[in-house]
Structure formats: structure tokens, C-alpha cells
């Protein structure tokens, strides 16, 4: 597992950043760049990665709190790869499929890339590791998704995940707003101090007031004045509310009068058939807006909101993640374009489509419908804005009824009214024309849809007879793809034209700059000659410098090798010295013990005799012989007891069986006596009840 191999180093890697991050808390590792890049083995890099993973996933039930020496290599690699998947680690495309194999082989570059990824954004990884178990999506097989219980559980899970996201955001906001609590505490302290000051002032004023004559009457008068002031403020507020209600009622009256005038004008200038046609057109337009335009706009807004919520729920992505996703999108677009071209080349000679003309007409009508709907929407918005302006002006007119226009002001007002009335009439005519055109287009759309349904049924029958069901749908999809490709080609052509214009502008600016820079270029030529002379001097001196540095480096390398050899000799001599010193100590201890044994046999030393008395034996030989004799006597006694037990074993077993039988007999007697006693008690109770009844 932990052998080293070399692969193409295409992923971002900076060993200096790894060394700096590991030297800081909580790791505090004094590793150099050379240690990480060359010196450490693959197993040591695995240990460092495991330590970083323990810090990121610091839960008590973390799966990373294991010993790598006892854990199988396959389990270690699988655990690290699963955790990297949670952290959204994305290696380069040529290494993505072989990441497990590289880790099992102990590839140093892969391990260093993983370590750089983990340490570069440590806090974001820690947050993502905390959120991942709660927000991970459970892969449920499609055959189980049809069950109602599983659907309810899945919905509950999504709801709980949404609640968790909201609470997590709220907690983060509270953590970020920790400074606001300190400010509130300061404000509370200030208000408490102000309160104390106000209480002191009130106490002083009370003392002054109590000294005045008739102070109770003055206090009563102040209380009544305060009550009257509060009533006055309440009355003013009520008057404001009533004035606002009056204004709202006047506005409603103006709107009602306006609608009445519109209805009267419509009745005067039109008959019932025109009103009926206008109502039909309005209903068609409203139906189109409600069934086609508004659902489309709502779906677009919903998609936009879903995308924004996804972006908000996702954790922060780095530039490398964006680059990888852009590469995937580019590859998918290229694959889609190739497939579309293949399908077009296959179905190029398959025959003409009978519905092509009708389909083009339907597309044109749909585009016209969308354009007219947009125009109607813009006109309606403009009409609403004009109505709002009119209401504002009428309200201002109601407020300033006393002002009467005279002379030139009146002429200006009349001219403005005329221009506005002409604009209004023109817009009204355009609106009516658009509504009629919309009705005609809707009718033609319905007719074409019916024709298309009939043709589709006939095409389906023909395809079924010829055994090529689905050919028409594929051809439609290919035509859509070709239309999109044509649109893309048009946009590319426009872009190329714009680029050509920009190139022309750039060429023109370059020519202008050239004309300006001619004098400067002449000066630069003279300076360039001086620079060449200086460069030759620099090259010569650089060669001298390089030769001196090379000689010094060779001398320093030889000296370093000698120093390493001397240090190794010193370490070997020191280890040999310590080993011999320890062996001398052991041999000295054994020699002292031998001398003590000889003294015990010889005798004559009073101090050693006192030591013998204290420990209770003369020599270790006597002690061990005494213990051996004691153990032999004890073994003899045990053998005798074993013989006695074997001799009495059968008789004792018989006696034990007899005692068990006696115990069973006694238990049966106890049970029978208990039953007899219970029966006598029941008889006595029954006789007592009979006597009571009598």
C-alpha cells in the first residue's frame, strides 16, 4: 500500500502552504517543505491526513479515530475517499477514476494534493463536515419511491432539513451578532445610571415641594393637567384617522364616478353586439394571459427561485470547483452537438415532412402571440401608470380646488390636454387593433392545432403501418436542434462582425500609437545598444559568479558529508558506551550478590550478621532449600488428602443422593400440609357464611 510512485502532477499543490498550516495551532508541527515533499514516507503522510481529518470531524463518534497500523489499507482508503466526497474534493479528470488505486499504491503526489486541499480551507471543510450528515440526500431506489409511507418519510426528511437550515442560519446570525449583545448591555447600564439620576432628582424635587404651602393642591392640579394633555393627544390622533378615512372615501368616490363615465360613454358610442365582441376579446385575452403567459412567467420565476435557493443552500465553492464544472458543461455541450449532427446526417435523406409548412405557420403564430401579449402587457402597465398619475392629479386638484388657471397657464393646460387626449386615442386604437388581432390569431391557432392533431393521427397510422413509430418526433427534435444551431451561428456571425470591428479599431489605434512612438523608438535603440554592452558585462561576471558558487557548493557538500560521518561515529560510540556502562552495572550487582553469599558462608562480619538477622535468613541458598522442602511437604500432604477423597467418594455420593431424596419427601409433606390447612380454612369460612344466612 505505501510504496511511492510518480504520476503527472497537474493538480494545484503548494508544499509551503502545507508546512505553514501544519506549524500553526491546533497542529503545531515543525515540518519543513523538504520533509513534506521528499523526506516523509507515504505512511507518514497518511498519518498526517488522518490527524487533519480528526480535527475537521471532531465529533465523539468520528470514524477517523483509529490506529492506522491495525486498520486494513483498503478500509483506510475507502474511509478517506468517502469523506473527501462529502467535502466535494474534485481531482483532475485524468486522476478522478484512479484515485483509490493511487492511494492504495501510496502515491505521494495524490496524498500531498489531498493534504493541500484539506489545509487550504480548513474552517469551510469543518463547517461542511458538520452539515453534511444532516443535509445529505438519501438515494432511494425508484421501485420503493412508489410507496406512500416512504414518500411521506421523504417529505418529512426534506421538511426537517429545511428547518435545520433555517435554525443553522439563525444560530450563525446570533454568533455574528455577539457584539450587539455587548452594546445592549452598555445601553442597559447607561439607562440604569440615568434612572438613578432621575430618581435622585425626583427625591430632591419632592423635598422642595413639601416645603411649599398647599403642595397637595398643586400636585392634584398637575395630575389633572397631565390627564387633559393625554386626552388632547388622543383626540388629535382620532382626527388624523378620520381625515385619512375621508380621503380614502373621496378617492373611492372619484374611481366610481370614473367607471360610471366610462360605462356611459361606452353605452352611448356602442351597441350590445360591439360590447359582446369586446367582452369576448377581453375574455380571450385574459384566458390567454392566464393559461399560457402567466404560467410560463410563474414557472420561470419558480425556476429562478429554485436556482437561487440551491445556490444559497450550497456551501461556498472555490475557483477549482467552478473550473471543473465549466469543463463538464463544455464537454456535455460538445457531445450533444455531435449527437445532433449524427442524427441529422442519418435522417437527411429520409423524406420531406408534410407538416413542415403547418409547423412553421404555428411557430410564426406562436411568436406573434407572444409578441402581442408582451405589447398588451406593456400597454396595460402604461395605462395603469397613467391612471395612477391621473388619480394623483385629481387628488391634488381636490386639495387645491381654490386655484383657478388663467391666461397663458390655461392655454398651456389646454394644449397638454389635447396632446394627451390624442396620445390616449391613438393608444386606445392600437390596443383595440391588437386585441382583434389577438382574437384572430387565437382562432387560427385553434384551427391549426386541430389540423396538426389530424395530421399527427394520420402520420402515426402511417408510421405504425411501416413499423417506424417515433420517426416524426425524432425529426421534430432534430429540426429544433438545427434551428438552435442556426441561431447560434447567427450569434457567432454577429460576434465575429463585432470582433472584426474591434480589430479594425485596434489596428487604427496601433497605427496612431506607432506614429506617436517613432521618436521614442529612436531613443530606445540607443538605450538598447547600451543595454547590450551592459548585458555582455553582466554575462561575464555571472559566469565568474556561477563558477565560484559551484566550487563553494562542492566544497560545502564534501564538508557536510564528512560532518555527517563524524556525527554517525559519535552516535555509535555513545550508544556503545551506554551499553557497556549498563553491562558493567549489571555485572557489579551480580558480583556484590556473590560476595554477600561468600560472606554468609565464611562469617565474621558483625554488620552483615545484623543484616541476616533483619531479613530472617543466613543465605539465599538456605532460603531456597527451606522453601523447596516446605513445598515438597505440602505436596505430600495434598497427595494424602487426594487418596482419602478418592477412597470416600462413592460412599459420600450415595449419602448425598439419600439426603436429596429426604429433602424431596420433606418438601412433599410441607405441600400436603399446606393444602390441608387451606382446605380447613375454606370449610370454616363456608360454615360461617351459612350460619350468617340462617
Automatic annotation (TrEMBL):
Keywords: Cell projection, Cilium, Cilium biogenesis/degradation, Coiled coil. GO terms for molecular function: tubulin binding. One of its GO terms (cellular component) is intraciliary transport particle B. Residues 16-138 form the IFT81 calponin homology domain. Residues 174-266, 322-403, 471-537 form a coiled coil. InterPro entries: IFT81, IFT81_CH, IFT81_N_sf. The keyword Coiled coil applies. One of its GO terms (biological process) is intraciliary transport. It is found in: Cell projection, Cilium. Belongs to the IFT81 family. This is IFT81 calponin homology domain-containing protein. It comes from Piromyces finnis. The lineage of its organism: Eukaryota, Fungi, Fungi incertae sedis, Chytridiomycota, Chytridiomycota incertae sedis.
Amino acid at each position: 500500500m505505501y510504496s511511492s510512485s510518480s504520476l503527472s502532477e497537474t493538480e494545484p499543490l503548494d508544499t509551503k502552504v502545507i508546512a505553514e498550516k501544519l506549524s500553526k495551532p491546533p497542529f503545531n508541527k515543525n515540518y519543513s517543505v523538504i520533509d513534506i515533499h521528499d523526506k516523509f514516507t507515504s505512511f507518514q503522510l497518511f498519518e498526517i491526513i488522518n490527524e487533519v481529518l480528526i480535527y475537521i470531524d471532531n465529533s465523539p463518534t468520528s470514524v477517523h479515530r483509529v490506529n492506522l497500523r491495525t486498520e486494513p489499507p483498503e478500509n483506510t482508503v475507502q474511509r478517506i475517499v468517502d469523506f473527501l466526497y462529502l467535502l466535494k474534493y474534485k481531482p483532475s479528470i485524468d486522476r478522478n477514476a484512479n484515485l483509490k488505486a493511487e492511494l492504495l499504491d501510496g502515491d505521494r503526489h495524490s496524498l500531498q494534493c489531498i493534504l493541500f486541499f484539506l489545509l487550504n480551507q480548513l474552517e469551510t471543510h469543518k463547517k461542511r463536515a458538520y452539515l453534511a450528515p444532516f443535509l445529505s440526500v438519501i438515494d432511494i431506489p425508484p421501485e420503493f419511491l412508489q410507496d406512500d409511507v416512504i414518500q411521506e418519510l421523504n417529505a418529512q426528511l426534506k421538511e426537517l432539513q429545511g428547518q435545520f437550515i433555517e435554525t443553522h442560519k439563525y444560530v450563525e446570525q446570533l454568533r455574528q451578532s455577539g457584539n450587539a449583545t455587548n452594546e445592549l448591555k452598555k445601553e442597559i447600564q447607561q439607562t440604569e445610571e440615568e434612572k438613578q439620576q432621575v430618581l435622585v432628582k425626583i427625591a430632591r424635587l419632592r423635598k422642595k415641594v413639601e416645603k411649599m404651602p398647599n403642595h397637595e393642591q398643586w400636585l392634584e392640579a398637575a395630575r389633572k393637567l397631565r390627564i387633559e394633555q393625554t386626552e388632547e393627544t388622543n383626540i388629535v390622533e382620532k382626527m388624523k384617522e378620520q381625515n385619512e378615512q375621508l380621503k380614502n372615501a373621496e378617492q373611492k368616490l372619484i374611481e366610481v364616478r370614473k367607471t360610471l363615465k366610462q360605462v356611459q360613454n361606452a353605452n352611448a358610442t356602442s351597441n350590445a353586439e360591439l360590447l359582446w365582441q369586446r367582452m369576448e376579446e377581453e375574455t380571450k385575452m385574459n384566458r390567454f394571459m392566464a393559461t399560457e403567459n402567466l404560467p410560463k412567467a410563474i414557472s420561470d420565476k419558480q425556476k429562478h427561485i429554485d436556482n437561487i435557493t440551491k445556490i444559497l443552500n450550497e456551501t461556498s465553492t472555490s475557483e477549482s470547483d467552478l473550473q471543473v464544472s465549466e469543463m463538464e458543461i463544455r464537454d456535455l455541450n460538445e457531445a450533444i452537438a455531435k449527437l445532433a449532427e449524427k442524427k441529422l446526417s442519418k435522417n437527411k435523406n429520409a423524406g420531406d415532412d408534410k407538416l413542415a409548412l403547418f409547423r412553421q405557420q404555428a411557430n410564426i403564430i406562436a411568436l406573434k402571440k407572444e409578441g402581442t401579449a408582451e405589447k398588451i402587457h406593456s400597454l396595460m402597465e402604461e395605462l395603469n401608470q397613467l391612471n395612477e398619475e391621473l388619480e394623483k392629479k385629481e387628488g391634488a386638484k381636490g386639495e387645491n380646488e381654490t386655484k383657478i388657471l388663467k391666461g397663458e397657464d390655461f392655454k398651456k393646460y389646454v394644449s397638454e390636454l389635447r396632446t394627451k387626449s390624442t396620445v390616449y386615442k391613438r393608444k386606445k386604437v392600437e390596443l383595440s387593433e391588437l386585441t382583434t388581432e389577438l382574437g384572430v390569431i387565437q382562432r387560427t391557432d385553434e384551427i391549426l392545432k386541430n389540423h396538426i392533431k389530424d395530421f399527427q393521427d394520420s402520420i402515426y397510422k402511417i408510421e405504425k403501418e411501416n413499423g417506424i413509430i417515433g420517426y416524426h418526433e425524432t425529426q421534430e427534435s432534430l429540426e429544433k436542434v438545427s434551428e438552435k444551431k442556426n441561431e447560434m451561428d447567427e450569434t457567432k456571425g454577429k460576434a465575429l462582425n463585432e470582433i472584426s470591428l474591434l480589430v479594425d479599431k485596434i489596428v487604427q489605434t496601433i497605427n496612431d500609437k506607432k506614429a506617436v512612438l517613432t521618436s521614442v523608438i529612436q531613443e530606445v535603440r540607443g538605450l538598447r545598444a547600451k543595454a547590450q554592452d551592459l548585458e555582455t558585462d553582466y554575462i561575464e561576471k555571472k559566469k565568474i559568479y556561477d563558477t565560484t558558487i559551484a566550487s563553494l557548493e562542492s566544497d560545502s557538500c564534501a564538508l557536510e558529508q564528512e560532518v555527517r560521518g563524524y556525527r554517525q561515529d559519535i552516535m555509535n560510540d555513545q550508544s556503545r558506551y551506554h551499553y557497556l556502562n549498563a553491562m558493567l552495572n549489571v555485572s557489579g550487582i551480580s558480583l556484590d550478590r556473590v560476595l554477600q553469599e561468600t560472606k554468609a558462608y565464611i562469617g565474621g562480619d558483625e554488620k552483615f550478621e545484623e543484616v541476616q538477622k533483619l531479613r530472617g535468613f543466613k543465605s539465599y541458598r538456605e532460603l531456597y532449600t527451606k522453601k523447596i522442602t516446605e513445598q515438597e511437604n505440602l505436596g505430600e500432604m495434598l497427595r494424602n488428602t487426594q487418596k482419602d477423597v478418592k477412597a470416600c467418594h462413592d460412599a459420600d455420593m450415595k449419602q448425598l443422593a439419600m439426603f436429596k431424596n429426604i429433602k424431596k419427601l420433606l418438601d412433599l409433606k410441607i405441600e400436603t400440609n399446606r393444602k390441608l390447612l387451606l382446605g380447613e380454612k375454606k370449610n370454616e369460612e363456608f360454615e360461617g357464611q351459612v350460619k350468617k344466612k340462617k
